[in-house]
Amino acid sequence: MNRNVVENKQFDEERSLYNLKNSDVVSCVFAGPADGESVLKEARDINVIDCKFSLRYPMWHVKKFTLEKSSMDELTRAALWYADDGVIKDCVLGGIKAVRECNRISLENCKIVSQEFGWKSQDISLENSEIEAEYLFLDCKNISLKNVQMKGKYSFQYIENLTIEDSVLDTKDAFWHSKNITVKNSVVKGEYLAWFSENLTLENCKISGTQPLCYCKGLKLINCTMEGADLAFEYSDVEADVKGDVISIKNPKSGTIVVDSVGEIIWDDPVMPCNGVVKTR
Q1: How confident is the model at residue 138 (pLDDT cuts 50, 70, 90)?
Q2: How far apart are CA 63 and CA 55, in angstroms?
Q3: Contact by Cβ (8 Å): 79, 55
Q4: Using CA atoms, how far apart are residues 21 and 5, in angstroms rounded to an integer?
């Protein structure tokens, strides 16, 4: 079947290419005085290459697509919602709420600034990319990050089945109420990290920030370091192997924490039985 080609054109009207099928959209601009929304809504089997977007809601309900070498500026709000089976490569995504309630999307070599990115989505991979998002991947399932430079605040909350490798996470209250998380070979900067998480494993990670890893179930630290970590592990079920010093450990609920040294072990008026063991090498 021959593919339709839409090339070197500008569109700004509402639903300009609505329900476009089996097509390549090349070197087009989606912007202009008509300020139309939903320019590629309900498209099917499309390749969007070398295009520029500056209109709201451009790719809602799109199925089976690629988006390559394209840019979406800060006016491209809520760009991809309810989209399935997509590949996004070498793109700049600059609008708030860029991906929401999407399934089976891979992103590679992208630069993303989107304050509420990836919410309520499933089967999303992000690789070799930079992302800035205040709330990243809220209430998602089956997410993977590899070689990602991330900056945000309230990241990966209410998420299930997440893997992160070779990444730098500059965040705050990350992993709250998360389940089944594995983070390997990464830097994790945070405050109040991973409270109320379940089955979180951190391996070969550098962890920094105040009051980390409290109220956790099934927590594991393997060959990690901790900096600026005070009042750590309060009310957590934890098995931890930590290299170096920890400022203070407070009321671990159960398990064994092995450290090179610890400034203070605090047993202070716990509200539940706390039988965790802290060992120094």
Answers
A1: very high
A2: 20
A3: no
A4: 10
Residue-wise pLDDT for 14-33, tens only, equals 999 999 999 999 999 999 99
Q: Taking residues 66-75, report their average pLDDT.
A: 98
pTM, 2 dp: 0.95
Q: Which of 113, 94, 200, 108 is nearest to 145 (CA)?
A: 108
What confidence tens digit (pLDDT) does each residue in 115-135 have? 999 999 999 999 999 999 999
Residue 1 has pLDDT above 80, yes or no: no
Per the structure block, which two tokens stand in for 31?
A: 């912007």
SS (H, E, C) the chain: CCCEEEECCEECCCCCCCCCEEEEEECCEECCCCCCCCCCCCCEEEEEECCEECCCCCEECCEEEEEECCEECCCCCCCEECCEEEEEECCEECCCCCEECCEEEEEECCEEECCEECECCEEEEEEEEEEEECEECCCCEEEEEEEEEEEECCCCCCCEEEEEECCEEECCCCCCCCEEEEEECCEEECCCCCCCCEEEEEECCEEECCCCCCCCECEEEEEEEEECCCCECCCCEEEEEEEEEEEEEECCCEEEEEEEEEEEEECCCCCCCCCCEEEEC
CA 125 to chain centre: 9
- Output the CA torsion 123→126→127→129 (10° steps): 170
The residue-averaged pLDDT of 64-68 equals 98
Report the relative pairing of strands 187-189 and 116-117 from DSSP bridges: unpaired
Share of the chain above pLDDT 90, in %: 98
103 φ, ψ (degrees, to nearest 5):
-135, 135
